[in-house]
Amino acid sequence: RNYRSSLPAIFTIGPRIDDEDSLLRYAKLISKEKHYHHVNELVQGIIEGETRVLVASMTMEEVFKGTKEFKKEVFDKVQLELNQFGLLIYDANVKQLMDVPGHEYFSYLGQNTQQKAQNQAKIDVAETKMKEADVAEANAKLQTKKADWARQAQLAKVEVTKAVAIRSGELQREVERMNAMTQTEKLRADFLSKASVQYETKVQEANWDIYKKQKVAEAMLYQKEKEAEAQRATASAALYSCQQTTDGEFYKKKKEAEGLVALAEAQEAYLHTLLNALG
């Protein structure tokens, strides 16, 4: 479907006087165009062309719903094209989009939007009432829950009281058991203390007997050692006397042997002398 509509707009356009390059472009434009209406047609063609190109890329709903954005896009596109001619949009006023007679699309779209708004309002009212009903139901449920919670809290309180009584009895029994264990440990400690004293006494008595026997044994050992030492002294004296006698005999025999050796050597020397004399 094709829809036709008009874009009522008033643009105040003129040369950019604060830029030398833009003034030069505008002068070139004026010098090429002999009549003013040719420039007017050129600018109008730019506005209409950019508007058509922009509208062609959008749906009619987007054009209608996004009027402010649509106007801004038109201004930006037109200004971009006018820059090449050194022109500037000093002011622009675009009125609400209007239908061409016989093509009342925007009127229909507006009515449709208004109807949707009314329907949405009705839906919001219905949802509000529904929410109020839900709140009432939720309150009733909450009261029921509160009563149930109160009952559970009372039961929990009774259970706690019972548990406290049971725990108290258990603790009392534990205290009595600990007291009995303490008394038993005390009696055991007393018995062990007496037994330890008796044991120490017996050990000391046994040690004294062992000490006396040890001293007797040491005395006997000392006597035996003295006797052994006397025997060793006697044996050593006899051995010394025997050794002295043996040493004397050995010395005598040694001297005799030395005399014989000296005699033999003298005889050997004499024989050598005779042999040498005899040739």
TrEMBL record:
Localization, UniProt: Cell membrane; Membrane, Caveola
Domain Band: 16-129
Keywords on record: Cell membrane, Membrane
Organism domain of life: Eukaryota
UniProt GO cellular component terms: caveola
Record membrane topology: Lipid-anchor
Chief location of this protein within or outside the cell: membrane
Annotated InterPro entries: Band_7, Band_7/SPFH_dom_sf, Flotillin_fam
Pfam families assigned: Band_7
Entry keyword annotation includes Membrane: yes
This protein's record includes keyword Cell membrane: yes
Similarity comment: family membership: Belongs to the band 7/mec-2 family. Flotillin subfamily.
UniProt protein name: Flotillin-like
Taxonomic lineage of the native organism: Eukaryota, Viridiplantae, Streptophyta, Embryophyta, Tracheophyta
